[in-house]
Amino acid sequence: MKHITIDDIAHEAGVSKSTVSRVISRPNLVKEKTRKQVLSIIEKYSYTPNVLAQGLAGMPTKNIGVVVDEFPNNFYIDMADGIDSVITANNYTFQVMSSRWRPERELAGIRSMIKNRVDGILIAPVSADSPAVMELKRFGVPFVLMNCQSADPAVSFVSCDNYKGGALLAEYFNTLEHEQIIIVSVFDHESVRGRIRGFEEHLKTGTVRVTRYSNAKTYQDGYDIAPLVAESDSIKTKKTSLFVTNDYVAIGFITRFLEMGITIPAQAAIAGFDDIRISTLCRIPLTTVSQSVYDMGRISARALLEQIQHGKTEPVRHLMEPRLIVRESTSKSGGEKKGHKTP
Amino acid sequence: MKHITIDDIAHEAGVSKSTVSRVISRPNLVKEKTRKQVLSIIEKYSYTPNVLAQGLAGMPTKNIGVVVDEFPNNFYIDMADGIDSVITANNYTFQVMSSRWRPERELAGIRSMIKNRVDGILIAPVSADSPAVMELKRFGVPFVLMNCQSADPAVSFVSCDNYKGGALLAEYFNTLEHEQIIIVSVFDHESVRGRIRGFEEHLKTGTVRVTRYSNAKTYQDGYDIAPLVAESDSIKTKKTSLFVTNDYVAIGFITRFLEMGITIPAQAAIAGFDDIRISTLCRIPLTTVSQSVYDMGRISARALLEQIQHGKTEPVRHLMEPRLIVRESTSKSGGEKKGHKTP
DNA sequence: CTGTTAGCGCATTCAG
DNA sequence: CTGAATGCGCTAACAG
Description:
CATH superfamily of the largest domain in chain A: Response regulator
Helix content of chain A: 40-55%
Largest sheet of chain A: 6 strands, parallel
Number of domains of chain A: 3
Order of helices and strands of chain A: HHHHEHEHEHEEHEHEHEHEEHEE
Strand order of the largest sheet of chain A: 2-1-3-4-5-11
Structural class of chain A: alpha/beta
Oligomer: homodimer
Radius of gyration of chain A: 26 Å
Shape of chain A: elongated
Number of helices of chain A: 12
């Protein structure tokens, strides 16, 4: 339990600790013979420098912070996996925390990570100008936004081209038959607004459309809201196409509609956004816009490491390409049969 | 970017740094007047102690390490959420990493966390006696195993009572009609073995049963294996009940069976284990054994904090209560209609 | 009650 | 090429 220190090594090797330190960080400055000698006893005790001490002495901690909105969100696992893949390959470690969509929690989170002297921060922020992001700028810690674009040209972000995704879906909706289109805006976030703008601006003119705002994040929320929407927009009598701007909520709609005796897609066609794992496996496979969250994690992590290791570089402002995936929730014949994205 | 230090505060407050230190950690040892004085200027610069320095000086880092098998596993998100809830409530932070089921990665992982001087480790190990767990014991770092029981009476763990879960399912299977029972053992892990033992030991004697071993972890694996099993055990002609020991794989089976024209549950009844979010939403809702992974995370985290804060206590050896959930994959009528666990 | 002193483990000048 | 000295920021005795 007693951690072995550089002094122990130096002592046993009969050299000074400076030499041990060099053997580790700049081996070529040490004569081969002594180097091997020191190395062997480092091996013997499988000694590794105390990271805290290194950090105190001004070295990078090789630890980065990750702040996400919430864990119970399929978004996060793929993101984490992507981040993990590049982070550990570079011998970094990362801490995580969730903001639960609360700006104060988010702020407290990045503060705590800064206290821990992380070398940089990856954050899927509540908004592009949340207090946390402001603090990050003020502080000068390297950071990159995930799943959120920023108007500030100096900040790096990696997000999906939500606008384009919305557009893709609109163009597809233009080919559908219906008497009205309903947009259910799940919650207020930059990414969601982008989807809606893209969608609305590409819809055939003259289409009857209505937009419903809600603050829905979960399956259950969709399940609960569905009847209200069905009622106020008389879905039972008007053939309708719905764009629910997030898969989880969309699936809640589908489940509830089916229970209400509304047939899908005949009576109501429903599309979501994100292409989470469940979307292809649920009762009525969901038409949606797919984005590779795993890649989003990878790219963000790479951008951050780049920024950390090579100092100030150009900010990375990257938009992932969205992809329309038509499944049975909008098209009877539609969709793939197998070979879905492995959930 | 220049972090402000205790010296800065002491200087500006006109006291020594010991006093500042006391104001923070043992305020009652400081005269009210000077305390307020110091406090005000701490506020002014929103100073917080450098955690690295504190750590070096022997204080706990209030950072714990979490090692999971893999992220793209619904298991992990709920666990992380549970852990997060208690960890952040106690002002701790946590780092995560995934072993990807590789003992070397797992070992490297815990080593790296120990290097980072975490106060304790939460680990869902590849096995109860993997090299990583051995190292943990050797090292004397507080740790608790998740989703895995240990034979060593000294080690703490929080897992599901898998044996009992298997038993519950067996007793239910005893009420089903079929000509044979097939157990598909998804992969070799202590938790899975427990399920199978419980299941086998509670099956009605005389039942025709066969066990298939595979190394399947994903939906896709199940999808791929299904036809082989169907073939070798002539499922098309013999009414069969299957216990696939993990939901993801079970859902793969269902999908493939349906594609092959095998009706469920009429021709083949299928049950899984875990009750992941998808299980209630997929084409044919899955009968399964539910365990609260969120609680598993909470309880483990609490146990660890207990161990860290109050030193050596009795090891915590906790088994979560499993719950049988009957849905349509085994019972036509069966299952809930709504009010599922919110995915 | 408060200031002084001495590490904690390591990297980094600066001499030799 | 290598050793001795200094500082990183903070806590913990130990004196006043």
